Predict the structure of Glycosyltransferase family 2 protein.
Amino acid sequence: MKVSVVICTYAMERYDVFSECVDSVLAQTYDPLEVVIVVDGNEPVFERVREDYGGLDDVVLHCNDENHGISYSRTRGAEIATGDVVAFIDDDAVAENDWVAELARVYDETDAIAVGGDVVPEWVTEKPDFFPEEFYWLVGCVEPGFAEDKEEVRNTYGSNISYRRPVFLTVGGYDPNTGRKGDQHLQAHEAPVGIRLLERYGKGMIFTEDAVVHHKLFDYRGDLRWLVFRSFWQGYSKRIMDLLYPNAPDDKGDYLKQLLTHFIPRRIRSLVRSPSTFGAKQLLSIVLFTGAVGLGYLYAILTPNLIEKANA
């Protein structure tokens, strides 16, 4: 089974981080492996990519004619790829050497149509003491209670996700109106694909904790204002998903309920038993982020012509 790994990038200022990602994929133990690099409309970056990787076997390069965003770029990469399976990793992540091998093992041993793995936070600077692990999902990392090993989920996080390529393309790939593109705030581009897989094939994605990537978290991801802002737009995005797919499984909604009924009460009990500034900060952050998600959802409810604006 041939696996194609798609890596998308767009900015020269993060080129060193991107190249570390590419090198980790080139160092994979799995074979046959193809690496597809998509540069999102930046010719100087593409020229440097061509200098560094253009002469390597099983490396395919592509540059979009303009900046289209991560969702378009990933789908374009899947179209260019020739593997039976297409895997995606963010350009600010580093894969463990057996990452692809572990994803492929699940495909070999099961009838999976999609497989995703663990995303471990790697703070480039010191982790903020107020940031709770219950909200790792805000920064694209796997949070406690996400799933059991080999459990079927709707989708994993975008830095460690894969699909049987014909299946991914059959359901239309990623919607270019979602995901990161300039100032656009509609998030969770993996969710619609997971929902369409469930609707068409009656099955979701298998999560494996053995396929691991490390997601670099830079200073801005530890900034309180940025995290509140992101929480708000997560809530906004969730409302759009609810409108577009009213009958779909609500993974994040279920997690927020678990947060309110299990994690927050557990935090409070722990704080009562052993009062600490550290514990109080994290509890307050959980309440703040949860409230911001709720405000984003409410803002979306009150926004006229929401779907049309999201697609604009």
